[in-house]
Specification:
Shape: globular
CATH superfamily: Hotdog Thioesterase
Largest sheet: 7 strands, antiparallel
Number of helices: 2
CATH class: Alpha Beta
Order of helices and strands: EHEEHEEEE
CATH topology: Thiol Ester Dehydrase, Chain A
Radius of gyration: 15 Å
Structural class: alpha+beta
Number of domains: 1
Length: 148
C-alpha cells in the first residue's frame, strides 16, 4: 500500500501521511514527504540558513530528525491497519558530508518488519546523488495513546 502525502489514516488521533500534527521541532527540520508506503518512504528537505550550526553548515540534528521521521512514518504505515503506531527505540545516524544549502533527498526502506518491532534504513543524498547521511532506526509497534 502506498499512501499519498496528506491522505488521512484510520488510526485514532493519528495521520500517518502528514507531519501537520508534529511539533514545531519536527516541522522546522523541513522534511517534505513525497511518497509513503509500508516498506518505503521518500521525501526531501530544502536546506537553508535556518538549518545551520554557528559554523554555517547544516546541523546533524536535521538529518537525524529526517531519518527518524521517515522511518517512523513508514513503519507506522505498515501497522496502522492493526490499530498500531511505530515508535523509535534507537536511531543511529552517520554524517558523511557537510552542506550549507540545497535540496537533499530522503529515502527510508524497511529492512525487517516483524510483529513487535521493525528495522529501517534511511539514506540522505544531495542533488548529485552523493550520500550525505545514513541512518538506521529500530522501532517498536505499539497501540497509540488514546489521550494523544
Amino acid at each position: 500500500m502506498t499512501i499519498a502525502a496528506g491522505t488521512p489514516s484510520t488510526a485514532p488521533g493519528f495521520d500517518v501521511a502528514s507531519l501537520e500534527s508534529s511539533s514545531v521541532f519536527v516541522k522546522a527540520a523541513g522534511l517534505v514527504l513525497d511518497e509513503i508506503g509500508e516498506a518505503k518512504v521518500t521525501g526531501h528537505i530544502d536546506l537553508a540558513s535556518e538549518h545551520h550550526t554557528p559554523w554555517g553548515i547544516v546541523h546533524g540534528g536535521v538529518y537525524s530528525t529526517a531519518v527518524e521521521s521517515a522511518a517512523s512514518i513508514g513503519a507506522s504505515a505498515a501497522v496502522v491497519s492493526r490499530g498500531q503506531v511505530a515508535v523509535g527505540l534507537t536511531n543511529t545516524t552517520h554524517f558523511l558530508r557537510s552542506l550549507s544549502s540545497g535540496r537533499v533527498s530522503v529515502e527510508a526502506t524497511a529492512l525487517y518488519q516483524g510483529r513487535t518491532h521493525q528495522l529501517w534504513r534511511a539514506d540522505i543524498t544531495d542533488a548529485s546523488g552523493r550520500l550525505v547521511a545514513h541512518g538506521e532506526v529500530r522501532l517498536q509497534n505499539i497501540a497509540p495513546d488514546p489521550k494523544g
